[in-house]
Structure prediction request, 309 residues.
Amino acid sequence: METMSGMIDQLLKGLAIFVVKCLFRVISVGPVPEHIAFVMDGNRRFAKKQNEATIAGHKAGYSSMVTMLGYCYELGVKYVTVYAFSIDNFKRSPEEVENLMDLFQEKFERILEHDSIVHRHRIRVYLIGNLKLLSEPVRVAAEKVMKATAKNNKGSLLICVAYTSCDEIVHAIQESCKSKKYEIQTSKDSVDKKMNGLVVHELEEHEDKPKDHAAEPCNEVCEKQMNIPTIKLVDIEKHMYMAVVPDPDIVIRSSGENRLSNFLLWQTANCPLYSPAALWPELGLWHLVWAVLNFQRSYQYLEKNKKKI
Prediction:
């Protein structure tokens, strides 16, 4: 009886895999999003709904993430970003924060195992955020994951932890200022030399000319010749944490919330937001399929907007 039950389970599992592959083949006829970002919202509410401890909801959320990643990479999505932990989440109870840090460390170490989804799909992992805010064991585990997957080239998984978009923008501006500092100083030194040279040259010419034929003021000449480096849009963008991948094509936020909560504000100016009512641990295949079909329906409009920018 147990053998028969096992055979039926295997048959149903194989049938489910076949159906998913057929479904993805059909969807792939249209444009497939290159990059999908997820706001994993609702883990705590899910735990409360199940009358379980909060950490149980986060563990269920991790399982849901792994399943969703599998669907994304099978569909052909190259980049997946997940909002795992905001800087603002450090304001939660010390017990919950500690439990989450322990969970992060455990799952980062799990990624290093050869049978993990990351190694099966040859996915490179990036930890995005202000990693200095993490505890040392978690930070060390995160760095090991990034190093171990650095040569994987079939796709990318970006885990936003200790992240907010405001912090990312401030970081990018600070780094842009640092990178421009030397250029600005070098340019200033060059202008000073030109200024000194022009003053001497102007005085010499002024002695040989009639008094009513004044030379062009040296400060105006210098202004024309000055080319002091300035911080431009491209400078800020290249220093963003998210600069390693293209901007998202879709943002999917669970729990029916229609806000980004300080997530990828810079990168999602023209990105559709899909907000299914399901809590994150409840999110499944059909939610992803529906989001992709909506993306395909508005693809031409979205591409037209990108070209205008």
Q: What stands out?
A: The first strand starts at residue 35 and ends at 39. The CA atoms of residues 98 and 135 lie 9 Å apart. DSSP finds eleven helices and six strands in the chain.
